[in-house]
Amino acid sequence: MITKRIIPCLDVKDGRVVKGVNFEGLHDVSSPIKLAKYYSDCGADELVFYDITASSDQRQLFTDILCETAKQVFIPLTVGGGINTVADFDRVLKCGADKVSVNSGAIRNPSLIKEAAKLYGDQCVVLSVDIKRVNGVFRVFAKGGREDTGLEAIEWIKRCVADGAGEVVVNSIDTDGVKKGFDLEMLKAVCKAVSVPVIASGGAGKTEDFITLFKELPKVDAGLAASIFHFGEVKIADLKDEMVKHNIPTRIC
Q: For residue 4, what is the DSSP state?
């Protein structure tokens, strides 16, 4: 049976891990290098590193910090932020990434996913989608949730998966940082639309939110969170113990 993954997320701005609410009001947390080592050592299944202002600043991802972070990690590492070309894929993979997450870059250049999947394989290409409800419609936002693209989210995800995205990270702007649980309605719609692994992001506030996620939506492959792990509100080892008690398949170190 395929185990459910627990994935901490490092949102990096100016070389530091930050966290906010609804993608706004960012506060400094820690060094990505220090946190990466901590999570690699304490039972996380994977790690995500997002340079969250690379796209909005129209610059490349800070590879020096990424290289140092990757050296601390002995679990799969997904990297995103400012990924606009296949050359960007190549650059971050050479820095130590195992998978590359693309968001705004695919919106600007819809052929990017197909080109990258052809070169590096579907398993390397992760579609990250920032979604917010606009008049009851799931809409795709770009540039770290700052810009409404007008794209309907489910159709956009289906298109990108057809082009070769091997995994989808669903970032709910509505629930991000609120700590009242994952956006089950949104995730259910995505799981129904595609057959590739789906990662839930945005809204986790306690251990029970992960249990509810995996029980209510067994098609969801992983739960991603940031602040509750960064500030020690939920410890990964304790979370996995609870998952085992609820017969949710998980990797125990």
A: B
Q: Does the predicted TM-score (pTM) go above 0.85? A: yes
- What are the boundaries of each domain within the chain? 5-245
Please check whether residue 50 is in contact with residue 69, taking contact to mean a CB–CB distance below 8 angstroms.
Answer: no
Task: Please state the length of the chain.
Answer: 253
How wide is the angle at C-alpha 39 spanned by C-alphas 5 and 183, nearest 5°?
45
The helix-helix angle for 86-94 and 63-70 (nearest 10°) equals: 40
Under-50 pLDDT residues of the chain: 20-23, 25-28, 59
Residues that are catalytic: 11, 130
pLDDT tens digit sequence for 87-120: 999 999 999 999 999 999 999 999 999 999 999 9
Q: Looking at the domain that runs over 5-245, which CATH code has it been given?
A: 3.20.20.70
User: Distance between CA atoms of 218 and 26, rounded to whole angstroms?
Assistant: 32
Q: Which residues contact 157 (CB under 8 A, 6 or more apart)?
A: 127, 129, 168, 190, 193, 194
Distance CA 201, CA 34 (A): 22
